[in-house]
Design brief:
Glutathione S-transferase Yfyf (Class Pi), Chain A, domain 2; 4-stranded mixed beta sheet; Glutaredoxin; 2 domains; alpha+beta
């Protein structure tokens, strides 16, 4: 049965690859799996049909042979464990790759999302000037150990894995803030992820939906 994922009808980022469906697209491209995309408007995301797939009314969702999943971490983990290509065969290396996937979502991403909220959605608040630098420091506190662990390696633990896919996706959210440029090791790491052909295909597919020409 064909895999179907949902994505924004029009992504808030305008197709820059920051919407979470890009992570799922990337995983599917790495695994060499064909998939269909069902575009969902902001209004439709809150309607019963979509809420039956995603109880929180967000994207993406994943449907395959009667299985319905939501949350990008769960979806990427499923793709990696059931379709290969994104996890090592060695049991210990496999466990470490899964650990990095969770670390990206649970340890590194929360302060980054907090920074996005502070800068974009709360930037006009009277306390924003005091809050933003504090959140930026929390982000840097997460990035410094990541730099130390990565060192001069291409990827976090041996070959590219689902852990790297998720970590690169999370770090991409830092680019607009300029903080990523403060960490050349991580900027190069992200660039290696973006250079992968599977990422390029995923990015192009998301951009094609959101490009101005697609919405005359």
């Amino acid at each position: 049965m064909t895999i179907t994922i949902t994505a924004f009808e029009r992504s808030p980022d305008g197709g820059k690859g920051l919407a979470r469906d890009t992570r799922v697209r990337w995983a599917l491209e790495e695994a060499g799996l064909p998939y269909d995309v069902r575009l969902v408007s902001f209004r439709a995301m809150k309607e019963p049909a979509h809420l039956a797939l995603h109880p929180f009314g967000q994207i993406p969702t994943y449907e395959e042979d009667g299985l319905v999943l939501f949350e990008t971490g769960a979806i990427v983990f499923h793709i990696a464990t059931h379709h290969g290509a994104l996890l090592p065969r060695d049991d210990h290396a496999r466990a470490r790759a899964i650990t990095w996937l969770f670390a990206a979502l649970n340890t590194v991403e929360p302060p980054i999302l907090e920074l996005v909220t502070a800068r974009i959605f709360e930037g006009d608040k009277p306390w924003a000037k005091e809050r933003v630098p504090l959140v930026e420091e929390r982000v840097r506190d997460r990035l410094n150990p990541l730099v130390a662990r990565l060192g001069d390696a291409d990827w976090l633990d041996g070959d590219f894995s689902a852990g790297d896919l998720m970590m690169v996706s999370v770090l991409l959210r830092l680019r607009p803030s300029g903080i990523l440029d403060e960490f050349p090791t991580l900027a190069a790491y992200v660039a290696r992820g973006e250079a992968r052909p599977a990422y390029q295909r995923a990015f192009a597919a998301q951009l094609a939906i959101n490009a101005p020409a697609a919405h005359p």
